Amino acid sequence: MRYKGLLLHFAFWFLGFTLSAQNHPNIILFIAGDVGWDNSGYYGNPDVKTPNIGKLASNGIRFNNFLLTASSCCPSRNNIITGRYPYNTGACELHTEPPLEMVSFPEILRQNGYYTAQSGKFHLGKYAIRGFGGTSQGKKIGDGGEELWLETLQNLTKEKPFFMWFAALDAHRPWGSNPLSGTTDSLKVSVPAYLANKQNTKTDLAHCCDEVARFENFIGLIVDELKRQGELENTLIYIMADNGRPFPLSKTRVNDRGMKTPFAAFRPEGTGSHSFSDLIDLKTENKSSDKQAEIFIAPRQAEELFNNANNPDQFNNLTFQKKHAKMQTLLKQVLPEWMDETGDNFPEKLTAVWDKKEPGYIKPKITGFGANSTV
Asked: With contact defined as beta carbons under 8 Å apart, do 260 and 66 qualify?
């Protein structure tokens, strides 16, 4: 059986760790139930307040186009935990489960020295239990599924790095007892065009938003506990959902409302670039200048020519201006001579591009001459 764990590979790629590294990072995956990307405050929904998630995302990466492989719970969660498409897990239908020989990525982590624990909603299958040294199966997990998260984290020993699969029932129907009920004003909630703009629908949407608020509140409690234990700076945190929100034309549908999940990844201080994060913020807010937005231009122009005397910052590419064609031709002649003299060559296999500068590529507008005057 060939195993490919998407989140496992992504987690260790994210900070350059491998399973043989001496200093393993802790990993926590928060997974909500029935929370679409359009039902998340940190994706711009004004009705859903998610300050804790937003703070983590601002210190990490927010993915704007993270698509699931199924828009209902069981197939989606089994895909996430195995790295296999639903039709390759043996559980492509709701309320089905993979065979016992299926392997999950927590099982791989456990075999390589991690303490692994699951708390909250399960809905995976018997095979997945092998992946966890601790589980909330058979225990009361609360109306939203988060009741034992904090206790699970507090009961850890520090002998091993840990992986936590913290799965919520929120915001799955039916709406239950919730101390945060009423957080969302049902009279002011926004109604998408595909739903009826009536008070019953508004109340329904408000209940859903309140359950997202509960999910997000428990994430805040876990972050506070990580700080108390001194573990936050050694912990990778991922936040996502299994499918879209439980409303018509969303959950179970093969569209962005059903398949597109909010996804945020937090990595410890010092591993990212605050300066790049600030540029992303300006770009997202449409406040960046031409120079600030330059890093997002794609595809890059193959040739760049600058007049350093007049443009010392080197932002004005003169390549396609006719009056500089002679200089460009001369440099093209000099380049292969210089390569030959210094023993330079073209690599047979170029290094893959890894620094994808999202969000929002800008296609450059080029004026000039010749076949290469547009991109």
From this structure: yes
pTM of the model as a whole: 0.70
DSSP string across 207-229: HHHHHHHHHHHHHHHHHHHHHHH
**Rounded distance, CA 173 to CA 181, Å?**
14
Q: Measured between alpha carbons, how far is 170 from 35 in angstroms, rounded to an integer?
A: 8
Are 75 and 82 in contact by the 8 Å Cβ rule? The answer is no
Residue (of 98, 247, 246, 263) closest to 171 by Cα position: 246
- Cβ–Cβ under 8 Å, residues 36 and 225: no
Q: Count Cα neighbours of 332 within 13 Å in the Cβ-side half-sphere.
A: 10
Q: How far apart are the first and last CA of the chain?
A: 44
Query: Are 206 and 236 within 8 A, CB to CB?
Result: no
| 361 CB-near residues (< 8 Å, 6+ apart) | 296, 297, 298
Per residue in 312-335, pLDDT (tens digit) is 777 888 888 889 899 889 988 998
Distance CA 239, CA 62 (A): 10
Answer whether 117's CB lies under 8 Å from 148's CB. Answer: no
